[in-house]
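Practice set, problem 2.
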Amino acid sequence: MSNALKNVKVAPNSATLAEARHRVFDFFKTACRSLPTVMHIYNLDDVTSISELRSTVASEIRKNSHVTNPKVIDMLLFKAFEELKNVVDMAKQRHHIIGQYVVGKQGLVQDRATKDQGISPFLKNFYNSNYS
């Protein structure tokens, strides 16, 4: 199943920031090329699309755009390749993938407004004061 990642190796160190940046782009290309396999393995067609997963990968990469140390970028790339390999090798289950990459961290909070419509003002204040 992981034919797409068998020949991918993480280089030992980036000498410059430009080289590290180039390696980040290479990782993004590799991740995007493996997304159809991930969609097939985890049967995600009913939940998301490849373009949504691609934008999730891009946003995860953008979270660390402020990092300028090549050694730190190399460490983050190593962790990213490890995560990608775990996903492609089915080391995670479907609900892990959906929770981490489809729904996301704030996905469950967005449904909160529709559930609060039938609740009394007292309970709304109680929930807000105790769980916020």
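Problem 2, part (b): a different protein.
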Amino acid sequence: MVLESISRIIKIQLPAYLKKLPLPETIGGFARLTVSEWLRLLPLLGILSLLGYLTIRPFLPKKKKQRDSLINLKIQKENPKVVNEIDIEDLRTPNVCYCRCWRSKTFPVCDKSHIKHNELTGDNVGPLILKKKTL
């Protein structure tokens, strides 16, 4: 039943659809098409564009994902992880950690996403920790 329906579409309905399309004889003929004729061509042009894109897609250059790149290029590269602690007198909470890897789901607050980032990239970025200064 399903194969019969597909066969009918391919053998009967598709050729009938293609015969009714307003395809001009020359390239200049496209300029003379009316809006309604262009609208009738849209489904075919969309399908041809999609097929063309899917055909060339494997040959397109791959974009490097931002998540795969280093963030810290030159600061304290000799340390396994760069973490700075700053004492501040007027801090309401005892400790606040701010993200410097730009991967935190709770940005600007650190959620320790730098650990996974460092494992994947070999980077050494860590949080900025603000501590309440004890007098």
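Answer key, part (b): Residues 8 and 49 are 25 Å apart (CA to CA). The two ends are 84 Å apart (CA to CA).
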